[in-house]
Write a structure and sequence with these properties.
binds adenosine monophosphate, globular, 5-stranded mixed sheet, 10 helices, 3 domains, alpha+beta, 6-stranded mixed sheet
Length: about 500
């Protein structure tokens, strides 16, 4: 059985493996190195995944599920889902347990099923290449993923018929790609600006120990925001000139968005990019086109604030880690948007040095995943990944507040125990609402589970003491167990349907 690495991205995914000591990306049979993380249903109800799915995004956007990673493991009512929903062309609904469902050809799918389809496709690519039907995988996830999202990735892997050997954080994978098999004793910053999210991780590598010092993210900052600035700019200009608004025209906006992204990428290489969209709309005088020569300087003016915002996040990450920019030995860039020259320039100014050229921003995570897979395959010891809890874990209190039990940025694995007592005579159960997030208010954090400790002995109030232990493993996954202090016996725990 072979172990591969999988970078499960918002926009694209990528499989990789170490062969003859060299990590490499596994190409698909058509020769592609990345696989769009897209699932689609044709009007004839055929299922498409990857490039084939991507191709119909223009003609059938309502049944093309893209960007689903932003919905994974979230509740429908969460502000994140409500916000991303507005920019999606496909329908999103609330499931029976408050979870998110996506609608494809009028049928509801759990987000984890969409991921299972993507992972099944990746498994197929790996199987074809390796000629091995049994695949295990190391899968990477964003550092800010909470317990539910990590558990869902494991579930999706299982549904795709793939054993998940380990889940590791994307920045940690990038650091492995950078430091593995080298004598590296350094402080690093991993600056990851992808399609939809931004994460900064401060890390120390010493003697094969990869210790995360802090990780701070912004779930709503990524390449898409850069595209949106261009779209807004051009749509406004178009409206000024023609008096026609494109706001309600989905197809026109989608075409404009694709053209904006293309132009943005071109402007990473050139000073000007031409945008040409014939027949984007029609007015009283007939069809109208949108044509514009966008300059790099204009793009920089439009997006400078976004880049500045990423530096604010770097500042917080360094503060938490107790570091200053001059203490950082190298900056690793991850994510396609880091190719923008302005991003480079601002990072260089802030840290006082150029980012590392040693790792490829698109492949670093996949390569790191392959390295981890190889470490597991060979049973290599000594390489230690010490990650942190990205968001505080705690309990919802009756007054609506959130009581933090394991603060964010605590190194994992970590265990914490608390004693709970009964408030009523003969109380036979205790219920806990376990949450994860940054807010002081329970309802603003993600619900992980509702747990009931049942079958407690009938005793006067306050006499039954239940010791509850919260343990977060190296993958950031939480388990809760409980003991009756008097008897030392495990108390029956009942985890209710998660998002009930
Ligand atoms: P990722 O999630 O890492 O694949 O990042 C994808 C994001 O990077 C998208 O928003 C792309 O538009 C952006 N991107 C890819 N290539 C470039 C480039 N050459 N210049 C600027 N942005 C890019």
């Amino acid at each position: 059985m072979k172990i591969i690495g999988i970078d499960l991205g918002t926009t694209n995914s990528c499989a990789s493996i170490v062969e003859k000591g060299q990590p490499r990306v596994i190409p698909s049979s058509q020769g592609y190195l990345t696989i769009p993380s897209v699932v689609a249903f044709t009007p004839e109800d055929k299922l498409l995944v990857g490039y084939d799915a991507m191709r119909q995004s223009l003609t059938n956007p309502e049944n093309t599920i893209q960007g689903a990673k932003r919905l994974l493991g979230r509740q429908y009512k969460s502000w994140v889902v409500q916000k991303v929903k507005q920019s999606f062309y496909y329908e999103i609904a609330e499931g029976k347990f408050g979870e998110v469902e996506v609608i494809g050809n009028n049928r509801p799918f759990a987000v984890v099923e969409i991921f299972a389809l993507i992972l099944r496709y990746i498994r197929q690519v790996a199987e074809d290449y390796l000629k091995d039907p049994e695949i295990r995988a190391v899968i990477t996830v964003p550092a800010h993923f909470n317990d539910r999202q990590r558990t869902d990735v494991r579930r999706a892997g299982k549904m795709a018929g793939m054993e998940v050997a380990r889940i590791i954080n994307e920045p940690t994978a990038a650091a492995l790609a950078y430091g593995y098999r080298k004598e590296v004793n350094k402080n690093l910053v991993i600056y990851d600006l992808g399609g939809g999210t931004f994460d900064v991780t401060a890390m120390n590598i010493e003697n094969k120990v990869y210790q995360v010092l802090s990780t701070v993210g912004d779930t709503f900052l990524g390449g898409i925001d850069f595209d949106n600035r261009i779209v807004e700019y051009l749509a406004e200009k178009f409206e000024r000139e023609t008096k026609i608004s494109l706001a309600e025209d989905r197809v026109a906006l989608q075409r404009l968005r694709i053209a904006a992204e293309e132009a943005k990428k071109e402007l990473s290489l050139r000073k000007e990019a031409e945008i040409k969209l014939p027949f984007i709309s029609s007015g009283p005088q007939g069809p109208l086109s949108l044509e514009y020569l966008l300059k790099r300087t204009e793009l920089e003016l439009l997006t400078e604030k976004l880049v500045e915002k990423t530096l604010d996040t770097c500042r917080s990450a360094l503060d938490i880690a107790g570091l200053t920019p001059d203490k950082i030995d190298d900056i690793i860039l991850v994510g396609g948007q880091t190719r923008m020259p302005l991003v480079w320039e601002k990072i260089k100014n802030y840290f006082g040095k150029s980012p590392s050229k040693g790792v490829h921003p698109d492949e670093a995570v996949a390569i790191g995943a392959a390295i981890m897979a190889d470490i597991i395959t060979r049973g290599e010891t000594g390489v230690l990944l010490l990650d942190v809890v990205p968001l505080s874990i705690g309990l919802g209190l009756p007054d609506g507040r959130f009581k933090e039990l394991i603060p964010k940025n605590t190194t994992v694995p970590v265990k914490k125990s608390m004693i709970f007592t009964t408030h009523k005579d003969d109380q036979s159960s205790v219920q806990l609402v376990v949450l994860q997030g940054d807010s002081a208010w329970a309802k603003e954090n993600e619900l992980l589970s509702k747990i009931a400790f049942t079958g407690l002995p009938a005793k006067p109030k306050g006499e039954v003491k239940v010791e509850v232990t919260f343990a977060v493993d190296t993958e950031g996954i939480l388990t809760v167990s409980a003991l009756d202090k008097a008897t030392g016996k495990e108390v029956t725990t009942q985890v209710s349907a998660r998002a009930e």
